[in-house]
Structure formats: C-alpha cells, structure tokens
Amino acid sequence: GAGQGNIMSFFSKK
Amino acid sequence: MLEARLEQAQLLKKVVDAIKDLVQDCNFDCNDSGIALQAMDNSHVALVSMMLKAESFNPFRCDRNIAIGLNLVSLTKVLRAAQNEDILTLKAEDAPDSLNLTFESSDKDRISEYDLKLMDIDQEHLGIPDTDYSATISMPSAEFKRICTDLMAMSESVTIEAGKDGIKFACNGDIGNGSITLRTVQDVENKENNIEIALTEPVSLTFSLKYLVNFCKAQNLSKTVKLHISNEVPLLVEYAMEGGSYLRFYLAPKIGD
User: How many CB atoms lie within 10 A of CB B59?
Assistant: First the structure.
C-alpha cells in the first residue's frame, strides 16, 4: 500500500 | 496589548471546534493584521492555518506582536460558557500569562468574564510556498463532508482525480470499491450550491480519509469549501469566512505504491 507523506517534507521551516 | 471584539462568539467557537481534535497546544499569534495560528497535528501529516483578520472584529487593537499560547481543550471549556450570539471580547497584555475573555449577551443583561492561563509554546513555523494549483474545486461544504464520510465507511483512503470530465473521489476497501464523480453545477438562484472546477492539468492524488473527515468539522464556518490540488504537493482545503478570514488545512498526500 501507499505510505503516508509528511507535511514537513513539503514545507520548509521558517 | 490585545483587544479584539467579536459581534458573535460563534465564530471563535466554530473555529476552535473545527481544529481542536487535530491540534492541542498552539499559539494565537496576534499583530495589527489580526490573529493567526499555524500548527501541525502530532503525526505531521496535516497542517492547520487559521487567519482571523482584524476586519472580522469590531474593534480590533493590537499594536505589537503578541503570542497567546493556548491549550485548545482548556479554551473549549471556557468557550462552552459563551452563547453563539454573545458578544465576545478577547484581551491580553503585551507579554501575557493569561487571556481575558468576556461574553456579553446581546440584550446586555449578563456579562461573563473568564481568565485563562496561558502556556509557553515554542512552535515551529513552516513556510508555505505560493502555489499555482493544477485544479481548484469549489463546492458546497456539506457535499464535501458527505463524500468523505460515505467513502470512509469503505476505505481508509480516497483518490481524488480531477480531469476534464469532472472530479472523481474513489476508494478501494476490503468490502469493495466506490466512487463519486462531480460535474460543474451553476445554480443562479443559490450560488452556494455551485460546483466550480478550474483545471490547468489533470491531477490524481491519494489522501487519508481520517484527516479529511476531521477537516469537515469546519463545515459550519462556510457554506462552500475550496479544494486546491496539484500532483505531489499537499492538498489545501479552504473554508473562507467574512472579512477575509479563513481556516485552511493542508494534507500531505500518500506516496508510492
């Protein structure tokens, strides 16, 4: 099955 | 200091209700443009971004940056004491250790006052890039909730496919599979019934329904919801409110097979 992505891998830390 | 008065307490009650199961401890970041909140859920799959613009309050005063660190379970306990139609006023000092809330009945025969202890929350802020999404779908928020709830009965994830023929929500579960396809609707009499699909290229992404159903708790905030989708980036689910305020949810897609 598909794995769940992590939001932090899409948006960078400020 | 902060002083922010809402004509109707229900706006804040509904916003907090919509996010309290997703995030628990978070800062209300106040400045002269309004009250903002950005927080991830514990598993870092979803991100909540709230903006209550100064225009949604009357009056709104906040002359410097003030972080109000709140536990949303505690805030909910206090907000439960406010009637939907009460006038709600938030007050805080510049470096506050408490938030003062007053609820005034509309006929002014009762004033309730609460002080809520604040927390020191060291929160990471993420930069959300401006994105030109491949597909933007505007639809009744009740319809979106029904789709998510119906599909969750069959499967833990949904594939959202937007193409020239419409937008398809499809799921595959142990007991079988199901799908709902929506096409453009133009209801001139009741614009909130409209389904609008703006598409620059076809997209197909898979998301966890558990989170989508959670986002739908914001349904009472707005009759319409906007979904913004692009391949390989988080889905944006947006509920717009009066005065330019909004509640946005970002959800990381499922990846690979």
Answer: 9
CB B38 within 8 A of CB A13: no
Q: Which of B228, B236, B225 is nearest to B143 (CA)?
A: B225
User: pLDDT of B118-164, one tens digit each?
Assistant: 999 988 889 999 999 999 999 999 999 999 999 999 999 999 999 98
Three-state DSSP at B23 gives coil
- ipTM field: 0.91
Q: Among B58, B41, B57, which residue's Cα sits nearest to residue B49?
A: B41
Summarised one tens digit per residue, pLDDT across range B166-203 is 999 999 999 999 999 999 999 999 999 999 999 999 99
A contacts of B253 (beta carbons < 8 Å): 5
Site of tokens 């946005």: B248
User: Nearest by CB to B252, which of A1, A5, A12?
Assistant: A5
Residue B125: its chain A contacts at CB < 8 A? 13-14
In the chain, the amino acid numbered B19 is: I
What is the per-residue pLDDT across B86-104, written as a single tens digit (0 to 9) for each? 999 999 999 999 999 999 9
Which B residues in the span 143-182 are in contact with A, Cβ-Cβ below 8 Å?
157
